[in-house]
Amino acid sequence: MQRVFEALSSTVRRKILAYLAHAELTAGDIASRFAISKPAVSQHLSILEAAGLVRSEKRGQFVHYSLVRDSLVNTLNDFVQEVCPVSKPLKAESARLKDERD
């Protein structure tokens, strides 16, 4: 979870995720939308991929990036449940139910 939040701490990386919200884009397509160097964009993409938020696929000479939706949703859900006062008692009850069934 730590890697996800570190990845989301950057405005550039959040913008990249927004660009990938509805479309798969090549690294070049993504880089063309920013006023930073291509190596810098590549570094941001590497961080997002290491956090499990995007996946890459090499096709010919291009690398295509897309969102890993389940990873982002699950990580944020886990975080919300940890800090939400309503969720903590429900999670405790869920754990008790599991223990009773085991």
How far apart, in Å, are the first and last alpha carbons?
28 Å
Low-confidence stretches: none
* Order of the strands making up the biggest sheet: 1-3-2
Helical proportion? 55-70%
Task: Quote the beta fraction.
Answer: 5-15%
Overall SS class = alpha+beta
Radius of gyration: 18 Å
- Helix and strand element order: HHEHHEEHH
Number of strands: 3
Assembly state of the chains shown: single chain
If you average the pLDDT, what whole number results?
86
* Major β-sheet annotation: 3 strands, antiparallel
Question: What overall form do the CA principal axes indicate?
Answer: elongated
Your description of this structure?
This protein has 102 residues and is of the alpha+beta class. The protein is built from 6 helices and 3 strands, in the order H-H-E-H-H-E-E-H-H. The chain has helices spanning 2-8, 11-19, 27-31, 38-50, 69-83, 87-101, and strands at residues 25-26, 54-59, 62-67. The protein has a 3-stranded antiparallel β-sheet. Helix 1 runs antiparallel to helix 4 (38-50). The longest helix is centred in the last third of the chain and has 15 residues, at 69-83. The mean pLDDT is 86. Keywords: DNA-binding, Transcription, Transcription regulation. One of its GO terms (molecular function) is DNA binding. This is DNA-binding transcriptional ArsR family regulator. Residues 1-87 form the HTH arsR-type domain. It holds the Pfam family HTH_5.
